[in-house]
Design the sequence.
């Protein structure tokens, strides 16, 4: 996948809908959503549970395909890419942060952050340097050798963010990243995501029902029953 990364928006969704099932049992999770996301944007997608937030993130990141409409990443229609190209895009150009952290329990913070680079075949020296830089960026340099069970929930989520950053992605997708955190820790994570967008020029798209997190974003898209409002 050779996308143009110098001109135009990083992501464009045009009249995107997603329907699960068919016939009388069909459920419309998203209906005719259009948006444009520029490089360095911090966008919060908000709405109640079941509003379509996660579905939209999955479509924008290429994890799922729309039933109708198009999603373009730097002008490339994701529906037209081979699965191998989508895997390569998600491995090298997109980072993911999940509510449940998704850390390997037997690996240290440093090793968890290095894991995507190990899969990508980078050398030990480059893996170590990039992971060290990513942990420093989220304020966890002193916790690099700790395993997940030795870290607080907020620290684990910061490791997850560092892991998402370590491949130096153009876009980071975060699905309810503060959902399991207390208010103060959630606010800190929100600030970290904002700093990622500002300092690294990485586009950050967050699905959240946390209004404090949404308030830190530059832009906000509200969904109600699959519709933008």
Sequence:
């Amino acid at each position: 996948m050779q996308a143009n990364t110098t001109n135009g928006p990083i992501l464009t969704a045009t009249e995107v809908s997603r329907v699960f099932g068919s016939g009388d049992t069909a459920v419309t999770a998203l209906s005719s959503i259009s948006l444009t996301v520029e490089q360095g944007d911090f966008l919060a997608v908000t709405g109640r549970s079941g509003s379509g937030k996660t579905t939209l993130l999955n479509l924008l990141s290429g994890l799922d395909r729309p039933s109708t409409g198009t999603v373009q990443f730097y002008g490339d229609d994701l529906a037209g890419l081979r699965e191998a190209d989508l895997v390569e895009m998600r491995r090298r150009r997109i980072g993911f942060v999940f509510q449940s952290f998704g850390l390997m329990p037997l690996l240290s913070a440093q090793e968890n952050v290095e894991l995507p680079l190990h899969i990508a075949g980078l050398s030990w020296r480059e893996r170590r340097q990039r992971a060290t830089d990513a942990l420093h960026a989220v304020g966890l340099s002193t916790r690099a050798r700790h395993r997940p069970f030795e870290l607080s929930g907020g620290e684990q989520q910061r490791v997850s963010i560092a892991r998402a950053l370590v491949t130096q992605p153009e876009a980071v997708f975060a699905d309810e990243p503060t959902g399991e955190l207390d208010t103060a820790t959630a606010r800190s994570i929100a600030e970290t995501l904002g700093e990622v967008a500002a300092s690294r020029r990485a586009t950050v798209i967050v699905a959240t029902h946390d209004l404090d997190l949404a308030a830190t974003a530059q832009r906000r898209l509200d969904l109600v029953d699959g519709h933008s409002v």
User: Anything to note?
Assistant: The CA atoms of residues 10 and 74 lie 5 Å apart. The mean pLDDT is 89.
